[in-house]
Amino acid sequence: MVVFHIGRYVETRGARSMLEETPQIEETVEQWAQARLEALAAQAGEVASGFYLCAAREREHRPRSEWGRLGVRVRPVRAERAAPGAFASEWFTRRWVDRTGSRAQTFTNYIRRGTGDRYPRSALAAVAQPWELALAEALEERFAEIRRLVRGVSRLRTAFRQHAKLERALVEGRGQCGPSGTTA
């Protein structure tokens, strides 16, 4: 089948309509998006690991009172409406209760990121030691880049789904009579 497309003829390789191609394209886009999100989650995990390695080195040279409580976690988003492969990179503070014995417990409080791609310096400064803040600021720039890429993948995924829905509606509406008795 040959179709006229933006000033030139394009072969559609045997597909009779976009509706036939859409499931294959949709599957390819979904596979790409999930693979990309997995790779970005792995990069975010490496950044988080870098924080803990640097923090451990810093703590070796400091008294326990200056160790700090800041932490970062990369974890899957488990919300009901979350897209497959979605993850979050989140900063938090730790608080230990009953540090002695086998009953020690750790509690975490997540820090609010706000509306942008980065955690505001003020949010981190309120809970971090000065050395932690410097380290977190440097790593937060990389987390912000990863968050922007994740948002781009999500937007592409959403845009394709919306386009596929429009394609299906166009094909499904073909040949039906409208209110005035004309075909759509």
Name the structural class. Answer: alpha+beta
> What is the radius of gyration?
25 Å
Distance between the termini: 23 Å
Q: What's the helix count?
A: 3
Mean pLDDT: 83
Proportion of residues in helical segments = 40-55%
Number of domains: 1
The strand line-up of the biggest sheet is: 3-4-5
Major sheet size, sense and barrel closure: 3 strands, antiparallel
Q: DSSP strand (E) fraction? A: 15-25%
What is the string of helix and strand elements? EEHEEEHH
Could you give the count of β-strands? 5
Principal-axis shape: elongated
Q: Outline the low-pLDDT stretches.
A: 1-7
Entry keywords:
3-stranded antiparallel β-sheet, 184 residues, 17% strand, disordered N terminus, 5 strands, alpha+beta, two-stranded antiparallel sheet, single chain
In short:
This protein has 184 residues and is of the alpha+beta class.
What would you say this structure looks like, in words?
The chain is α+β, with helices and mostly antiparallel strands. The protein has one domain. Helices cover 50% and strands 17% of the residues. The chain has helices at residues 18-60, 121-125, 130-173, and strands spanning 2-5, 8-11, 70-76, 87-97, 105-110. The strands form two sheets. Strands 3-4-5 form a three-stranded antiparallel sheet. A two-stranded antiparallel sheet has the order 1-2. The two termini are 23 Å apart.
